[in-house]
Specification:
The longest helix has 18 residues. β9, α11 and β10 form a beta-alpha-beta unit. With 383 residues, this protein is of the alpha/beta class. The chain has 12 helices and 10 strands. The chain starts with 10 loop residues before the first helix and ends with a helix.
Amino acid sequence: MNTFSFSTYKWGLSVLAAGLTLASCNTAQTTDSATTSGSSMDSTTTAAPAAPAGPTPVRPAGPAPAWATGIKPEMQAVIEALASLGGKPIETLSAQEARQQPTPADAVMKVMQANNMPMPPVTADTMSRMVMPGVKVRIYTPKGATGTLPVVVYYHGGGWVIANLDTYDASVRGLVEKTGAIFVSVAYRQAPELKFPTAHNDSFAAYQWVLRNAASFKGDPQNVAVVGESAGGNLAASVSMMARDKKVMMPKHEVLVYPIAGYDMNTPSYQKNAQAKPLNKPMMAWFFDKYLRNAADGKNPMISLVNANLKGMPPTTIITASLDPLMSDGEMLAGKLKAAGVATKYQNFEGVTHEFFGMAPLVPQAAEAQDLAAGELKNALMK
């Protein structure tokens, strides 16, 4: 779920534009300079090209916030940049207003530009396909890829309410580059226009579509995994459960990044990180209110994954962040999966917040988390 409050910001285009901007700023200027030597003879010399300005260390402007003891400097710089963009607390807004707020991509871009950091190269080609009315996917194929490739179905965050394919483009591109797999990013329908279980059903429909159509985009329909962030992590796990229960081929692996895994907002991490940024407890309450029809929906196993029947789920990787209300959700889910006999790898990253995963060009812990996710996917899909 993208809890920075998301607009329809075009990350890919922004990366390209920013890259061009930085390139123009960094182009060495060669100038001709006419000088007079100590003799009576005039000579014209050319000055040496100016060295391109390199990236500068990312440092936060102020002290760590009270809620973020131990926050990493790059992560704090992003949080400061986000605050500087003037977004309003999304729990005070309508869904339509919240979708127009500054995004993590905006904040990361601002920090990278301020520190003269190079933009990531474009290493994947994309195309869009319709799954059914109202639901589309964006297919990312590694540039220059040949032959049949594994497929990963990806579900973005946003509390089932905000964010879109562009908002999470950086996460997907990072994983495409690190795995060499085809990624299919799903634009499921959102609340409050369409409430639970619409996003869940759309997500499963997209997974089934991939199984039926993978060969049409050079994907291997027998070699499929799922990945999701936040609300998308909840969706990815629910897709695995639905596949199991409906006797559909299950994913070979699932990666759940700070997933929403329960309806209990009094867990240790909810209490510790109640006022965290970019996600806090009031925002989670707002998301639940917008997506769920009633409190009973919160107890549904597709929302409360920690109380679901988890036997027979695919091997799972769970990634969480220490400065995140959802950390306990992921930690508890990992424990429940292991108790159910599911091969599970769990890693919490210290000093980072919700939404850190897509910030690999800037935040070292994000690069580590993507490496972990990619390694587990490759082990499952490329044997």
